[in-house]
């Protein structure tokens, strides 16, 4: 899979009547990495994923999936792509095992190979105990796992996953994370959309942000992620209220924090630092001053902060 070139998208557009669902998408998702597709509700993520999966035709632009064009070569693209929609659709009366075996047959695996692959994937996604139950009785999280297994049946070079973590319990999310990371480490291209930004932060190597149908430029992403952000400061218990500690307030002001915007949160102090450099300087000064700090960390992750920075000016798209 070393020569798998991943996903390349240039100037892609798609409208539904007068709704410009995707108005300008340009980005690359390289092989060997997990790329997050992030955007508010209605920003065009699902529409874009459907076009990448060859299930929807773009109005304009070009797409290459592991080197193949979904418009001119949909069959080639489908053989290279594992597609997991945000809800498991088909075949409620088939069991989990049958669902995977039938999918394997659709990908032209022999009956024996399809059965073996089904058993293998049921184990990978933790559904072996439920293998012979009809898919319709599975819980939402179990259906998500079956959907993921279905996307992996033909060992695709490119995985397109729409909200794969939704409905999963914490243990299943941890397993999903390590599975996606190992699939990427094996040379596959993984593109994941999700609203759970804290989780994407841990899974993804890169992020593509969409706002109102447009993929945001790298420069705008860098600006949104470099702005002011809140940091949580926690003192060792018994050190008093950090928000009422004059020494801390003076040190924060020296580091460039607007102290009028300081706030309390569950006994901690939350301070808006203008930059990571300012936060580092303040931490160093507080430690030097002998303050006993047990936590000093950004309140929101980098993806979440960038997401909020990009969405804030005009609100959410939907
Ligand atoms: N088949 C369709 N017909 C008409 N409008 C559509 C169709 N599919 C999507 N849209 C519209 O296109 C826009 C983008 O929708 P899309 O589902 O791609 O967004 P999304 O980013 O996946 O949203 P969410 O995060 O809520 O799943 C929305 O305004 C939606 O209403």
From TrEMBL:
<keyword id="KW-0067">ATP-binding</keyword>
<keyword id="KW-0547">Nucleotide-binding</keyword>
<dbReference type="Pfam" id="PF00005">
    <property type="entry name" value="ABC_tran"/>
</dbReference>
<feature type="domain" description="ABC transporter">
    <location>
        <begin position="7"/>
        <end position="237"/>
    </location>
</feature>
<protein>
    <submittedName>
        <fullName>ABC transporter ATP-binding protein</fullName>
    </submittedName>
</protein>
<dbReference type="InterPro" id="IPR003439">
    <property type="entry name" value="ABC_transporter-like_ATP-bd"/>
</dbReference>
<comment type="similarity">
    <text>Belongs to the ABC transporter superfamily.</text>
</comment>
<dbReference type="InterPro" id="IPR003593">
    <property type="entry name" value="AAA+_ATPase"/>
</dbReference>
<keyword id="KW-0813">Transport</keyword>
<dbReference type="GO" id="GO:0005524">
    <property type="term" value="F:ATP binding"/>
</dbReference>
<dbReference type="InterPro" id="IPR027417">
    <property type="entry name" value="P-loop_NTPase"/>
</dbReference>
């Amino acid at each position: 899979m070393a020569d798998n070139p991943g996903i390349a998208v240039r100037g892609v557009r798609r409208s539904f009547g007068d709704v410009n669902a995707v108005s300008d998408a340009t980005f690359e998702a390289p092989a060997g990495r997990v790329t997050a597709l992030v955007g508010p509700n209605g920003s065009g993520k699902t529409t874009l994923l459907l076009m990448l999966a060859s299930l929807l035709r773009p109005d304009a632009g070009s797409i290459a999936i592991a080197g193949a064009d979904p418009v001119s070569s949909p069959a080639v693209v489908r053989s290279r792509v594992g597609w997991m929609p945000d809800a498991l659709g088909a075949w409620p009366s088939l069991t989990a095992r049958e669902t995977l075996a039938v999918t394997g047959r659709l990908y032209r695996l022999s009956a024996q190979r399809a059965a073996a692959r089904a058993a293998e994937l049921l184990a990978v996604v933790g559904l072996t105990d439920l293998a012979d139950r009809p898919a319709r009785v599975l819980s939402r999280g179990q259906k998500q796992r079956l959907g993921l297994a279905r996307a992996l049946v033909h060992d695709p070079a490119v995985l397109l996953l729409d909200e794969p973590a939704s409905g999963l319990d914490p243990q299943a999310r941890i397993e999903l994370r390590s599975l996606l990371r190992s699939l990427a480490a094996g040379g596959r291209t993984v593109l994941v959309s999700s609203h759970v930004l804290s989780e994407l932060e841990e899974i993804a190597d890169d992020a593509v942000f969409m706002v109102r149908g447009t993929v945001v430029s790298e420069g705008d992403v860098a600006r949104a992620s470099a702005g002011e952000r809140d940091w949580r400061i926690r003192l060792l218990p018994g050190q008093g209220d950090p928000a009422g500690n004059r020494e801390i307030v003076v040190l924060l002001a020296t580091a460039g924090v607007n102290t009028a915007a300081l706030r309390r949160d569950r006994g901690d102090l939350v301070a808006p630092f203008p930059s990571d450099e300012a936060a580092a300087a303040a931490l160093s000064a507080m430690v030097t001053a002998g303050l006993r700090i047990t936590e000093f960390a950004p309140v929101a992750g980098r993806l979440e902060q960038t997401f909020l920075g990009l969405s804030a000016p005009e609100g959410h798209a939907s």
